[in-house]
């Protein structure tokens, strides 16, 4: 039995496709050397992320420094001052910090990063930083609370008087993003925070402390990042989490490459992995809402279509932060 010869055009196209495949394979194999990651991820998440990347790029040796974003940035600032920044990559809590670094010309653009699967506005348009997750802030309430909130404005009602706790944006980058987002999107703007203050809301403590206060009944309502109360509810804590009807703010735990990276090609491969479907499914396994729109949500979350994200402009937020800090201080202190 004889096989028919391929048409010349088909053969040429097949050869080109195979050549491209071998080229990509060669590029992947060529990624090697050392990488240093500075991150605010929990230690377990950071190690899982590194292990998954190394499974694809075993010749890359990665070390990481983990701390909260403010401390990570303080360490990095000191290294900038000394003229010896150590990290190749940053994977931290918020895009506003990344915008600041971008404005200072500290970041390296990854022009070839494939973000075609993502909706517009998720990543930096110029490809200096990329969202890896969507960690939203909504309302947690104790299951014994008489008022079952569905709107941000419910926290200003008489039933919630002296019973609301929230992180202060003066001490938390995520809380600052949340404050600026709400002020930009709620019709009442700063009037919402003025009403909260008049209603006895307490602006202090981190997310873990907010959860503790609401779970114990010390307070009945709180503003908090989504995954903490959802995870604790699954463990039996007497709490419920609400995505308010007006929408929620989100921090995106962005990743970026430092302009001073000693191994930019390996750093780009790390970013590519985080943006890939496989990398985004790892975020799901860790219990987070992946930024990729085709990845399912963790157990305990509603459908992705039921979560309304409020618009957020990181560059504008960076410019607005000093004024927002001053205004919040005037209201609550």
Structure in words:
The protein has 333 residues and is α/β, with parallel strands linked by helices. 42% of the residues lie in helices and 15% in strands. The radius of gyration is 23 Å and the shape is globular.
The biggest beta sheet, please?
A: 6 strands, mixed
Derived from helix and strand composition plus strand pairing, the structural class reads alpha/beta
Any idea how many domains?
2
Uncertain residue segments: 1-28
Number of beta-strand segments: 12
Under CATH, the topology of the largest domain can be stated as D-Maltodextrin-Binding Protein, domain 2
Give the ordered list of helices and strands: HEHEHEHEEEEHHEHEHEEEHHH
CATH superfamily membership of the largest domain: Periplasmic binding protein-like II
Helix content: 40-55%
Q: What is the name of the CATH architecture of the largest domain?
A: 3-Layer(aba) Sandwich
The percent range for strand residues is 15-25%
Mind telling me the C-alpha Rg? Answer: 23 Å
Give the number of helices.
Answer: 11
Overall morphology? globular
Q: CATH top level of the largest domain?
A: Alpha Beta
Mean pLDDT: 91
- Cα-to-Cα separation, first versus last residue: 88 Å
């Amino acid at each position: 039995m004889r096989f028919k010869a391929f048409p010349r055009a088909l053969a040429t196209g097949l050869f080109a496709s195979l050549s491209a495949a071998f080229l990509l394979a060669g590029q992947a194999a060529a990624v090697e050397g050392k990488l240093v990651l500075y991150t605010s991820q929990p230690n377990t998440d950071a190690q899982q992320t590194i292990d998954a990347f190394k499974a694809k790029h075993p010749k890359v040796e990665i070390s990481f420094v983990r701390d909260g974003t403010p401390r990570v940035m303080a360490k990095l600032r000191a290294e900038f001052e000394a003229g010896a920044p150590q990290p190749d990559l940053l994977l931290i809590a918020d895009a506003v910090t990344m915008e600041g670094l971008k404005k200072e010309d500290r970041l390296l653009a990854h022009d070839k990063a494939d973000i075609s699967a993502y909706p517009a506005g998720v990543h930096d348009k110029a490809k200096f930083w990329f969202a890896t997750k969507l960690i939203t802030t909504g309302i947690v309430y104790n299951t014994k609370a008489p008022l079952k909130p569905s709107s941000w404005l419910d926290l200003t009602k008489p039933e919630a008087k002296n019973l609301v706790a929230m992180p202060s944006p003066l001490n938390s980058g995520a809380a600052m993003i949340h404050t600026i987002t709400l002020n930009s999107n709620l019709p009442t703007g700063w009037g919402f925070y003025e009403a909260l203050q008049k209603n006895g809301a307490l602006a202090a403590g981190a997310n873990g402390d907010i959860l503790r206060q609401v779970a114990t009944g010390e307070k009945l309502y709180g503003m908090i990042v989504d995954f903490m109360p959802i995870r604790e509810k699954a463990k039996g804590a007497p709490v419920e989490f609400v995505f308010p009807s007006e929408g929620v703010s989100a921090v995106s735990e962005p990743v970026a490459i430092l302009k001073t990276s000693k191994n930019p090609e390996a750093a780009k491969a790390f970013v590519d992995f985080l943006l890939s479907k496989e990398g985004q499914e790892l975020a799901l396994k860790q219990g987070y809402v992946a930024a990729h729109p085709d990845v399912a949500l963790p157990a305990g979350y509603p459908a992705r279509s039921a979560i309304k994200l409020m618009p957020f402009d990181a560059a504008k937020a960076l410019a607005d932060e000093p004024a927002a800090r001053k205004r919040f201080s005037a209201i609550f202190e």
